[in-house]
Design a protein that fits this description.
Helix content is 44%, strand content 17%. The protein has 387 residues and is of the alpha/beta class. The mean pLDDT is 93.
Length: 387
Amino acid sequence: MKIAIFTDTYSPQINGVTNTLGRMSDYFSENEIQYKIFAPKYEVDDDLETERFYSLKFHFYPDCRIALPNIFRINQTLSDFKPDLIHLMTEFNMGLTGMRYGLKNNIPTISNYTTNFSQYTDYYGLDFLKQGIWDYMKWFHNQNCLTLCPSAEARKLLEQNDICKTAIFSRGIDSSTFHPSKRNSALRSTLGTGEKTVFLYVGRVSYEKDLDLLIDSYSHMKEKYGSKAVLMITGDGPYLQKLRQLLPGDTVFTGFKTGNELAELYASADIFVCPSSTETFGNVILEAMASGLAVIGADAGGVKEIITHGKNGLKFTARNREELIFCMSELMENIDLRRRLAQGGISHAASQSWKMIIGGLMRIYEKVLEDRGLEKALLSKQGKFSA
């Protein structure tokens, strides 16, 4: 099987799409599956499997780029490569280019839905764009053989907006990278957290992540528990300066971290808080679980499917300040509950390996190719298909 992948975000950027692409690449290489990735250029060296194209920043959502694909070069590369299937990881210029090539050349295309752009409009006073975004998403995704969603909640959202032919492509976790053994007492001392109960947030520091709710809830915790609690923020983004102004002075800002540094920060905290109600999946929840933290997340989006309340974490109603404060206080005071939830989280994360998740993706690929083969055979029999 030969797979061509089109994406508007790729390494060195780090987000859910690029993390998934990295895991897919590893799996394909280990299993001798031929693939080509078509991605924006970030002035980095690449392997032979990656074709890069000049791009500009997309200011509304910097994790994606406005790529300017060289159609002639793409056509030539794909003509030589002869892919069996085209996987569109994003819906912008690169995704559009891959979709058009597939439609023109009778190659099955699969699209990906990973970001709730329409929900983000609520946070930036751009409600007038919401219907236009859904109109475009419907036009784009319905032209493909199948649209993959990271969670059942995302799938339901698409179906409510008339995007049909969907399937689940979840996300996995590398439990050897994120593990409780990475806990580092020396790191805690260096960060000044010592014996305090450490609440951790990891992710993009932007308004649509409901960080105003975290500011409000954690400020209440500080009033109640004082120096016994501390919040650690790991990440970067446009809302960072506002956080520095509004959060208590002893809040720890680590900046953007990856690899073993990130794994140590996870394992060296005590409680993970994900206030966001717009996640299509919630990779950070799995990372925190695998690292041995008790997790708190909004009962919304993909996060609500990862957390089983009272077993591997606690959930609060989206945007509900009182419920979030209650969850934070409960885990602050009840260490036994914290430990039970952490153990439940470790068990859940262990069942979500990338090998299993991408194995499921391969079965989806095979089913799409099988269906396309049957379709071709039927049309050929009726004299309606020409390769």
